[in-house]
Structures are given as structure tokens and as C-alpha cells.
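Hi D.,

Good news: the full-assembly prediction came through. Inputs first.
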Amino acid sequence: MSKKNFLTETLDRSILNRRSFMKWSGALGGTAVLAKGGMAWGLETVHGQSTDVADMASAAGEEIFWNSCNVNCGSRCLLQLHVKDGRVVRVETDDTGDDAYGHQQIRACLRGRSIRKRIYHPDRLKYPMKRTGKRGSGEFEQISWEEAYDTIASEMQRVKAEYGNEAFYINYATGTLGGTIAKSWPPESSPIARLMNLFGGYLNHYGTYSTAQIRRALPYTYGSAYAVNSLDDIANSKLVVLFGSNLMSTRMSGGGLVYDLQEGIRRGGAKVIVIDPRHSDTAANVADEWIANRPGTDAALVAGMAYVMITEDMVDQPFLDKYCVGYDEEHMPEGIPANNSYKSYILGQGEDQTPKTPEWAARITGVPAATIVRLAREIAQSKPAHITMGWGSQRQANGEQNCRAIPMLAILTGNVGIHGGNTGAHPGGYSIPSATFPTLENPVKASISVFMWTDAIERGAEMTALADGVQGKDKLDVPIKFFWNYAGNTLINQHSDVNRTKALLEDESKCEMTVVIDNYMTPSAKFADILLPDLTNWEQDDLVPSGNSARQSYYIFASKAIEPMFECRSVYEMCSEIARRLDLYDEFTEGRTQEEWLRHIYEPVRESNPDYPDFDSFREMGIYKKENPGEPIVAFQSFREDPEANPLATETGKIEIFSKALYEIGHTWELPEGDVITGLPIYAPTWDGLDDPLKETYPLQMIGHHYKQRTHSTYGNIDWLQEVAPQTVWINSIDAAERGIEHGDRVRVFNDRGATVLPAKVTSRIMPGVIDVPQGSWYQPDADGVDQNGCVNVLTSWRPSPLAKGNPQHTNLVQVEKA
Amino acid sequence: MSENGYAFYFDSTACTGCKTCQIACKDKHDLAVGVNWRRVYEVSGGDWVLDEGGYRNSVFGYYMSLACNHCANPICLEVCPTKAISKRDDGIVLIDQNACIGCRYCEWACPYGAPQFQDDIGRMSKCTLCYDYIDEGKSPACVAACPSRALDFGPLDEMEAKYGETSELHRVAEIYPLPDPSLTEPSLIVKPHRNAVNAANQPARVANTEEV
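Then the structure:
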């Protein structure tokens, strides 16, 4: 082969594709900043680094601090911060021990490894600011900490005098999740809550944007939303069925569930089936088979399979008879009319008179009937089978139905309460005790759904228990007037219908005061009246409990690695100083600094767990790990062994396939047209769903998966991550071809609620008729107010799900066209 | 050190495409956007067919993480007009940026896309196998970073002994999108993803060209 030919061939065969990130970024209208060298980010670029003498700077003069990545990913990773001359110069992760499974290293994912970019990001908030322009305009001026504290304290007193404590709200915010004192979630355990409780309280919320529907609905079935076999138990399974579960993107830690899933499959050799509209990284990595069903149709797929299991006599009848309520007419709660059992529903003997045949399910789900039949047989005949779901299935307008339907596969096949089986709920693991910061009791008992704060601003005094899911009282007395937003982007970016939320917040007569505490000028921070610059967790000490992990649990001592930057202060200090102005300083601090609090609350935990290190040794160690000393956890094992002695926390103590409580709610609550709450888990068609007439205008269903570039919206401003995992809309090649869209084209995704523009990822890895805009990308409107950065929530709706009043952010109809 | 020098091992069955290896590399070496000493390629293919109201598909996907393979026959070294590229006794191929004139011949020649052009200084750079870490007894940053333990490294003969039975030794060209290994004799051992068979038998493509 001649040299010329050789080069030509290598060029032709080359997998190298010239740097086209530049092209894509340019198309973003200048929203992504390109680095020409590390210096722009304050990073030290070592030129000539590839020579023999380069790269030798690493060890010299560096000090290593243990810390962690505290974001809302469900994992929690150990970081080693290498500090030189007061700056973090390199980030490594857990390299302790031999990495054997059970005490494996808690290896951070790509996001944790990029945290230098967060620490030294040019958009870090540097000093307190007050708004000068219209709310949301992003126009601010610097003020002193004294002025900031004074303003907040006096506004708190004014709003309390004028409206009472129910007018205060602490928004759902998970940007600082993992610490014990510097902790934004759950809001009721944050320092803000301690301050507000001392001040007379605030309007509570229940549920989360992650789990609103399952947290509310699944306890009607099991008495618990979270009871699962620990994921290491899949080594005992013959079959693993993952419904909408993409651990490879939602639990990415190398010490947590992604590794547990891989290891469990390697050890036990289970066959893996992934059911998801999108061929996720989990499907690519571990699935023996990928089944693509349409969003919001999980309950129909389950019903179709149940029909096969029942008609082919493959259900575990003794299990259903002994442990369950509502399977057949012989096991119904008293007072319920005939033909309301699950079996009647499936066989078409119930109210709808529609047998849930595989053909019926195929039309709805998009899964061929023959596949449904085969899948049903395989699940019924592969015992033990681990059936589990992610939380995407429940983040739907009919999410409560989906998350009670999927466990039906485990219940019908008797896979609950045994090794190798599961309940159907989201994967989980082993955990050890940790310290908590006392935030006292909230004198205000009223509570709204986490998702309905925009309604509570707009029409709070109209919201009732029966129509809006208000808890703790029959109706609210006042709308929200004072809004705390500590370490969260749910004020604008992560809540549904950005355009509607934006208009609501722009009306300053409605919500009268917004206080935002953050590290960056996020889309939400732009809606602050007072904006306070928080410390990152790398600038303060804290205790960090374990992330999700099946076989081991751990505890991290996160040490302050660098001095606070700019004028940033800790949230504990902020709350202390506001408390001082409200004559609550002594009650708030109890005379303790942050470190004194940590010592104070850690000590009793250590006393009851004698193998924990003492506080100072813990700081040196950085991480304490403990392997589950026993067998993998089996949910409801004791119930399975003796249901009389160990009843579930349901009304009947049994598994409630039919819930009388839900049936009664369904007949009591005031529901909008089209919403249903039922005793059985059924397939309920929804607005913006498959059979909505709106589909003629907006023919594509849209979901928004959790994406490796970000944890929700955190890390969404990091250029390294934007480069390796750019924001794109996934669209099937068939749908793209119909619209003349090619891979990489800028496209406009739109519906009646708004529009966003972003590049298309044309792929076979998503089913036809469905598109996917990964959630969390930062809202960046152009001059006309049209988002240019793929923020999915310009397309999602405020309308809550029926029971949980939760966020249905995967229920959307849209259209796509070339931009 | 073996005569053959060091090799990377990559287990494509374990790779989730998370790209932690890429970011750990960028952090270790302070690499700017546009300079990726390690790259993760998404391979996908397959089609959809409408069938009895539902869809059947033959879709598949997998990931390949590649850096520099510190080849036995490094074509980059051969084509460099200024002899800026050398191969050390331990097999590590390095670029001397003082001698590099940024002509990018190495980038064009390398079938793996390993040499990267640095806009800021107008020179090439690439994976050094973190030889400073190796000297300290540590693993290269990418290897120590992988959450799925899909990467390993060590002397080629040791890697062959450790993984040879379960892995293609990358002596065949069937692992799409890897080029024919006879071109450069890479020090790379790959355990192919089962879907690599699909890629060999039906159309497949690198689906994330904009990311690598």
C-alpha cells in the first residue's frame, strides 16, 4: 500500500469527525461560550504539557480535601479537591480501598468531575443585589449585606402583619442537596425553615417534582411508596423488567445504583427487558430486549399483559387470595358494587365492558399484540422476576394510575416479598443513620401540592381541599406573598409552563417579595427581588449522608477546601443575621456556629452507632463506609411470611389492588372534566395524550428525560458538559424525514404554551411519534421571548395530575419544524 | 515494563456512554472545549416497522471510548514532518509541543482521531497515558474515573493475559467503528458489546459526531 493510498484510506475510514461542536454552538446564537484556553475560566493551562517535563506539577505543593457533589441526582459522590495556593487545581474521586463490590469506590460521574468549572464559573454571584428593573429583567444593583438583611427582615414583618404566616412559602429547591446544614431539600429541613418556624411558620407543601404521583398513590396499594428489594437482590432474579427506569442517567455514581445494576446482572445472569419510549443508555447498556411503548400508556401495557396472564391461567392465585384485596369478585372490600374487581376490569366485565386484550393494548401502547403476549408469558414464567419502575412513568397526567399499574405485574405473579422479586417500585438500597439539623415545628398546618405554588400565588384564597388538594385545612386563606427560593431553579426553569409562570411573577402585586439564594445567575435568580450569593459546599464544612447504593451505605465529611469567594456567605449565616433583625438570633443559633452545630448533632448519632469515627477523625477520613452485613433487603418479607402478624400499612393490612379509600376520593373530590381517581389501577386516557383531539394539531408526544449533561438544571452552565453532551431534541428518523429535518438541524418545538429552538438528534433510538427534549436546560429567550436553549418547560402545563396534584411534565403534545 | 509497552483495555459491554472518562481527562490535563484526548463514540443503527398497530424495531446502540492507543506502529509519528512525535521505551507516544508546528498531519493520519489541535497555541496535543500518574503508581485519570469500571490499563502482555479470553484483542476490524488494526497496531484490547455483531451485519453509524 502506497503512502498516499494509506492516508486516503485512513481518512475515509477515520472515525474522527472534525470539531463540529463549534458549529453547533455558533448556531445557539452565542449562548454557549467557547474556551480558547483554560485561562478564561481561571484554570491554569499548562502549555507544552505533552513533553517529557510536562504534567509534573501535579503533586507539588498540593493539599487534598475530601468533599462531595451535592446535587439532586439520588447519588452522592466523594470528591478529592486538590488545592494549591488556595485554588482547586484538580478534582479526583474516591480511590480508597480495593474497590471490591460491597465497599466499592464512590466514583463521581462526569458532572462531579467538572466541578472546578462550577467553583470558578464567571457567572458566580459575588455580592448581594437588589432588583432595579422589572422582575425577571435580570437588572440588579449591588447592595451591602446589611441592606439585604434589613430589607428581608422588614418585608417579612410587613407581610406577616398584612397577610399572616400562611402567605410565606419556601419553594421546592434541590440545588444544595446532600449537606446537613447547607441543605435546600427537603425545604422543611433547611435553615430557612428553622428561621420561618421561629417566625411563626409558612405554607407547607407535600410531594416532590420527582415523585409526586408515586409518593401519593402507591401507598394505597402497599402502604409505602418506596418499599423495594435492594437492587443487589437482582443477582437472585431470573428476569429484570425496567419500566421507564434509566439508572444509567438518573443514578450515575460509580458507587451507587448504576454499578449495582451492572454488577447484579453480571453475578446472577438475569435477562433484562427495558420498557421505555426511548432507547436509553440503560437500554443500550444492559437490555436483552427493548420494548418501546408510548408515553403515558404503561397502565395499558400492563392491562394487556394481565389479560394474557389471567386468560392463560398464569397468575399466582394462592398469592392473590392470601395477600391481596380486590383481585377478583370474591376478594372485594365491603360496600363496593359488583364487577369492580381487577379481574372484571381486565376481562371487560366492569363498567367499560372492554376486555383489555393484547390487541386493545397494542393500539394504545404502540407495542405489537404478539409482543405483549410473549412478554406476559415471559414475565409470568420467569420467577423470581424483579419488576421495577423509574419515576418517569408517574410524572404523567395519569401518573398515579401508571405507578399503581406497573406493580400489578409483580402482584399477579407473586413476586412480592421474595428474594429475586420486587414490588415494582423504584430501585433502592441499604442505608445507615445520619445526623439532622433541627428545624423545629411549623405552626402553620396548611399544605399544598409541591406543584401548585403558582396557583397559590394566582388564586390562593380560592384553593380548597376537594378541588386543589389543600391539606391541613379546608381552604387557604391567603395567596402566597413572600417567596423563599434557596438553591433552586423551580421558580422559573423547572416548573411547568415557563411563559405563564413568567407572566405571573412579573405581576409584582401578586407575589410581593422573592428572595433567591444561589451560586449563579440562573433563570430563576433573575426573578429575585433580593438576590443573595451563597457559598458552595466546597467553601464550608458539612456532613453528607449516603446516596442511593444497594450493597453499601456511607457517610461523607465534606471539608472546607477553599476560603469563601467574593462576598459569598453561608445560608446559616444569612439566616442567623436575618433572625438577629427579628429578635430571634439566640433562638435560631442556640449560641452555636455551623461547626458547633455539626459537632452537636453528630455526637448522638455516633453514640448510637459506636463504629462511626469521632468528629475529628471523620474529618481526616473523609468517608465512612459500611457494607450491608446481611442478605439483600427484601421488601415485605415478614408480611409474606406471616401477613396476619405483619400487616402492611394499608387500610386492610393487605396489598390493595382495589383501594376503597381511592374509590371514595374519586367519588368525593371535585375533578376537572377528564380527570379520574379510581379504586383500581386502570388505563386512563388524558389531555395531551394519545386520544386527545389536540393531537391533530400537535401530533407528537413529548417527554423530557434526565440527561447526563445536568442534574436537573444544575451543571447546565458548564461548557465541558455542554460539549460532550449537548442539548438536542431526540426525534425518530421517520418523523424527521416527514419534516425535512436532518441530524443537527436547528428545529422549533412548539405547542400552544410556547416554543423552544434547539438542534435535532435524528435517531432510531426513540420510537416514532415521540420526541424527547431533555429536561433542565436553562431558559434563554431571544428578543421575542422564544427560548433558544431547549428548555422543555416552555412546553409543559400547569394542570396537575388528579390525585397527587403533581407535575405531569412528560404529558405533552407538540409539533416540530425546521427553525 | 514489557517490550510491548502499555495498553488500554476497554470493556464496551460495561460502557454506559456517560463520558466521565472524558471529563476526568479534561480536568487532569486542563483541556479546553474542542480538545478531547479521550472521546466516547455512540454507535447506533436499526429500523422501525409498523406491524399490527404497533411498531417492531431492530434498534441497537452501544458506546466506544477511545483515547490514544500508543500504537506499535504509530502513523502519527511517521507522518510528522518535524519529528515532534516520539515513542518512549515504555511505548507511550508523545508530542513535543516545542517542535510541533501545528500542521495537523498527525490528526489526519491517525485513524482513531487521537491527536487534537489546540486552537489557543496552534499546536497538537494528545493522550499522554498520564505517565506522571503511572510514575506515582496511579492509574491514568480516565481509568480511575470510570463509574462502570469499563477501562483498565497496564503492560500489553499483562492486559492480554488478563482479558484475552473474553476479549477481542483488537486484531480484527469487525468492531465498528474501529479501523483495521493492521494499519497502526494499536495497544488496545476491546471487549466488544454484543450489539457490535449488529453493527457488523447491518448499517450502523457513529451517531454523535458533534460530540467527539
